[in-house]
Amino acid sequence: MRSLLFLAASLLLFTNLTAQTYRFDFGNGPVANGYEQVLPDMKYNAERGFGFLEGRQPESVDRKGSALRGDLISSDEPFFFTVDVPEGNYDVEVILGDKEGTSSTTIRVENRRLMLEKTDTKIGEQVKELFSVHVRYPEIAGTDKKVKLKSRELAYFHWDHQLTIEFNGDAPKVAAVKIKPNTKASTVFLAGNSTVVDQANEPWAAWGQMFPAFFKPGKVVIANHAESGETLKAFKGARRLENVLSLMKPGDYLFIEFAHNDQKPGGSHVEPFTSYQEMIREYAAAARAKGGIPVLVTSMHRRRFDENGRIINTLDDYPEAMRQLAKEDGMALIDLNAMSKTLYEAWGVEASKKAFVHFPAGTFEGQTEDFADNTHFSTYGAYQLASCVVEGLKQTDLKLKNYLRKDAPSYDPSNPPTFEDFYWPLSPKVSVIKPDGN
């Protein structure tokens, strides 16, 4: 087993060291030296290895001037650019803005993983922004095995062999993109269920896909391996943990958040103070064997209030079992369960619906029935839960907290920002199917 892990690590290191830097000059003007030109009609094909995905074709604008900044690609609708890349971590540098106009751009990657929040430029202003991304393959490095994907995952952007970038916002304008391998940043692997996963479609969301936006680029990369419906047993049985370990290097982190599905009867059921703790210990030991650092995250509450507007605990003893385990074994703990109770009660019965997938029929295309889901989050709710996790991280002794963005404000779950102040331009992909898990 150790020899296989060593081989996997060696192969991953070799791949990262030999991975190229990709440079793309967007627009129909002169092409900068060392860059590939990207024209708006360049749909992705395997032979070229890059291009735009199907959808509204963006347009090219030539403002003259320098080859790299003088022309750009823009659209009044979201557009997706994808590139074939090896598995690994990357720093992505983008040049945004317009020499003769304003721009407003939000960037997400893969399955709506938030990288760059709303970024506005004034007339004539162009800015260079950096974010760091994790690209994973279903093939497990150094082995002949693959992650056992669910049928719906086969179409997910985060399991293909590409990096897909979503340019969104009121007026996205992109002059250039550079993608460079990053072998030095700490990787934060997330293991969890539908409350953590990068949800692929609107209106569903989870805290893990908001998490990257809180960290300094180049220093930390978030690798969200969570999947809807998973339990500790199922996550391991599908080789998701094995895949994480094949990519882990010393100094990386493994955040572990399970309980919602583990408490249900069936083959994946575990008991709080016995088998649940035993499996978490197994995950933690596996991470430590690779030089990684386990971090336990108690599961957030479901949205269920009593007659006095107080949250009812539907997770039984699982959060307390995790708290006790963290204390006994000296592991870092982020008590999201406790913070979520404060957060939901601060919202109250009605306002809290905005944080969950509660939308009347007809809000989204193909939605013929009301959404009233008290487990899965809206984008607003997911962002608030991610803010809680960040605030919990600040209370630990982990070195990771030093790499949070300095402009990230403190978060008080007893006084959350309002729904009206939250900005999230919708992605084109919508699903009326509820994610696995409850």
UniProtKB/TrEMBL annotation:
Lineage: Bacteria, Pseudomonadati, Bacteroidota, Cytophagia, Cytophagales
Keywords carried by this UniProt record: Hydrolase, Signal
Annotated GO MF terms: hydrolase activity, acting on ester bonds
The family this protein is said to belong to: Belongs to the 'GDSL' lipolytic enzyme family.
InterPro entries, alphabetized: AGA-YXIM_GBD, Galactose-bd-like_sf, RhgT-like, SGNH_hydro, SGNH_hydro_sf
The keyword Signal appears for this protein: yes
Gene3D superfamilies registered for this protein in UniProt: Galactose-binding lectin, SGNH hydrolase
Pfam families, per the entry: AGA-YXIM_GBD (PF21254), Lipase_GDSL_2 (PF13472)
Domain Beta-agarase/YXIM esterase-like galactose-binding: 22-104
Span of the signal peptide: 1-19
Cited SUPFAM superfamilies: Galactose-binding domain-like (SSF49785), SGNH hydrolase (SSF52266)
Source organism of this protein record: Echinicola soli
Protein name: Rhamnogalacturonan acetylesterase
Hydrolase in keyword set: yes
Limits of the SGNH hydrolase-type esterase domain: 192-347
